[in-house]
UniProtKB/TrEMBL annotation:
<keyword id="KW-0560">Oxidoreductase</keyword>
<protein>
    <submittedName>
        <fullName>Nitroreductase family protein</fullName>
    </submittedName>
</protein>
<dbReference type="InterPro" id="IPR000415">
    <property type="entry name" value="Nitroreductase-like"/>
</dbReference>
<dbReference type="InterPro" id="IPR029479">
    <property type="entry name" value="Nitroreductase"/>
</dbReference>
<feature type="domain" description="Nitroreductase">
    <location>
        <begin position="23"/>
        <end position="72"/>
    </location>
</feature>
<feature type="domain" description="Nitroreductase">
    <location>
        <begin position="82"/>
        <end position="164"/>
    </location>
</feature>
<comment type="similarity">
    <text>Belongs to the nitroreductase family.</text>
</comment>
<dbReference type="Pfam" id="PF00881">
    <property type="entry name" value="Nitroreductase"/>
</dbReference>
Amino acid sequence: MTTVEQLQLDNIAKNDYQIYPLLKQRYSPRIFSDQELTEKDVNRLFEAIRWSASSYNRQPWRFIYAHKGSEAYDTIFDCLSDFNQKWAGNAPFLMLAGYKKNTDEGTENFHALHDLGLSLGNMTVQAEYMGIGVHHMAGVNWQKAHDVFNVPEGYHIATAIAMGFYGGELNDLSEDLREQEGAERTGKPQTEFAFEGSWK
């Protein structure tokens, strides 16, 4: 029977060129250890975000987070899509990620979503270094999140994130999700997205 530890080994990317090991190891788990994230763990993750690049150093990212067992955790969970609710309750930590849409001068910050992505990339690598799995989710009802968390005008919740230390029991997942968890990681070849000199 496949174990979580075997899954972690199987999910190491089969890269064509050598890359930083933490990038090879990263994947998006749907099962997690019961180990809680401590305040220090959370501070380290947000410190990685703090020092990520952003246009004009505007740092437009904003986050709402909660630990399992809290009312806020249940509220975030209720904002997730039905599919994500099938597994996200395994995570000891849930988070909503948003951004400030305009600059302080009132003009549209066209790069805000890009900067949010950069910050989450930083956090994901830091989490991997700490043995924490991160699963980013597009399946979130952002309108509901805005309402229940009183998100101010001018901000937008873009994604949700489930986090926890690697581990847990595969049997906590439904059969279809167990199959997805064990599926081989794939990525488009570079020739499909990187073009020298002109768009191909």
